[in-house]
């Protein structure tokens, strides 16, 4: 029995950490012009300084962006629709393995990272301005302004839901005690899995979870605690294995189901924790070089990927295609191209173009875009 066409998984994450530094009081009591020099990054494995960008989060975000692109390209380019091709989700098909290993496995990470970025931004804003939640409100309204027109280009994109849920759930939760936020994260996430089979319903719970993890100080240890990351990886993998097997047993009807959502969340945690562990090993340098630029420019790359994939799909006639090979190859090519362009861009600029505009609107003052000197370090602060 043919399975339902896979729904697209779309998302972006707020990577804000290095907020504009607070204005310094001079001896005479007057204030110089606001400084917009970003805080220094935290290298993988190094202690996280207050206000520093956590490079491991950029790596995790970059890896998640790759997984989401593999899921999105089929529905976005209407793969096989004109040819009447709907590959059944089975253990001997590409669609089946995408469901088991990719679909609903990376989108929760993006939502979690958005919640983390929101809490980090609140921390920075609290230290630099008298009205920190006004900064958060502007950031979400700007995302809303981006998400509305983007929804027409890529229906089902999570930019718009991210902005709406951020305004309705995440911003009000910033007034709540962290314990209440943590409990709410568990309850809302469970409701999203049981009641809706995951997907966009996971956004509120993941937002709250990211905020709670940040407020409890867990995020500061991401990419630093080798034992902690490995322990989380093993526990999440132990939970994921039986859940994935349960999903595989009924894979033809799994799709966006309770089994798929639960397995996806467990695998998402396992993926993120595994990457967090790897950046404490010798794999840190190649992982950072490959994925951190993608993650630092996640919003720019996510938005740019849609027209690139649509153009490739039209050129290669994906609606009449009956093979996954050119479709997945196109997604990989787009990601590789974006990784190269992102690394080159960040040698000369402080952050991606959309990230820079988003930051400008968030803080109400323009920061530097071009570096005074080109750099080869892809993990410099945003």
UniProtKB/TrEMBL annotation:
Residue ranges crossing the lipid bilayer per the database entry: 63-86, 106-122, 142-170, 182-209, 230-249, 261-279, 299-318, 324-346
Domain DUF418: 214-364
Regions of compositional bias (Low complexity) in chain numbering: 28-46
Renumbered residue ranges of the record's region Disordered: 1-46
Record keyword Membrane present: yes
Biased composition, class Basic and acidic residues, residue ranges: 1-12
Keyword Transmembrane helix in record: yes
Superkingdom: Bacteria
Protein keywords: Membrane, Transmembrane, Transmembrane helix
Stated name of the protein: DUF418 domain-containing protein
Organism: Clavibacter michiganensis
């Amino acid at each position: 029995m043919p399975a339902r066409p896979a729904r697209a998984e779309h998302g972006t994450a707020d990577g804000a950490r290095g907020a504009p530094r607070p204005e310094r009081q001079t001896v005479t009591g007057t204030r110089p012009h606001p400084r917009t020099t970003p805080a220094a990054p935290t290298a993988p494995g190094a202690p996280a300084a207050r206000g520093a960008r956590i490079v491991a989060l950029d790596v995790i975000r970059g890896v998640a962006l790759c997984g989401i692109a593999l899921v999105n390209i089929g529905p976005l380019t209407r793969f096989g629709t004109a040819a009447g091709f709907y590959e059944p989700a089975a253990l001997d098909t590409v669609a089946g393995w995408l469901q088991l290993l990719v679909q609903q496995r990376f989108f929760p990470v993006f939502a979690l990272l958005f919640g983390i970025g929101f809490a980090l931004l609140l921390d920075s804003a609290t230290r630099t301005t008298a009205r920190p939640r006004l900064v958060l409100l502007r950031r979400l309204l700007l995302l809303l302004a981006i998400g509305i027109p983007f929804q027409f280009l890529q229906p089902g994109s999570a930019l718009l839901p991210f902005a709406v849920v951020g305004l309705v759930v995440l911003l009000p939760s910033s007034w709540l005690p962290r314990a209440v936020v943590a409990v709410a994260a568990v309850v809302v996430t469970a409701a999203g899995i049981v009641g809706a089979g995951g997907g966009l319903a996971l956004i509120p719970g993941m937002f709250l979870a990211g905020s709670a993890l940040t407020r409890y100080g867990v995020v500061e240890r991401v990419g630093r605690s080798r034992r902690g990351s490995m322990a989380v990886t093993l526990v999440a993998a132990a939970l994921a294995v039986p859940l994935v097997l349960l999903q595989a047993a009924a894979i033809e009807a799994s799709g966006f189901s309770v089994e798929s959502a639960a397995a996806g969340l467990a695998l998402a945690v396992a993926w993120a924790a595994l990457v967090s562990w790897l950046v404490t090993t010798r794999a840190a340098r190649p992982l950072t070089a490959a994925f951190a630029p993608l993650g630092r420019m996640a919003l720019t790359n996510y938005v740019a990927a849609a027209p690139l994939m649509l153009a490739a799909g039209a050129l290669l006639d994906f609606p009449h295609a009956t093979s996954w090979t050119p479709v997945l190859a196109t997604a990989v090519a787009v990601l590789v191209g974006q990784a190269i362009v992102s690394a080159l861009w960040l040698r000369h600029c402080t952050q991606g173009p959309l990230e820079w505009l988003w930051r400008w609107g968030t803080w109400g003052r323009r920061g530097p875009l071009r570096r005074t000197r080109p750099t080869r370090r892809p993990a410099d602060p945003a």
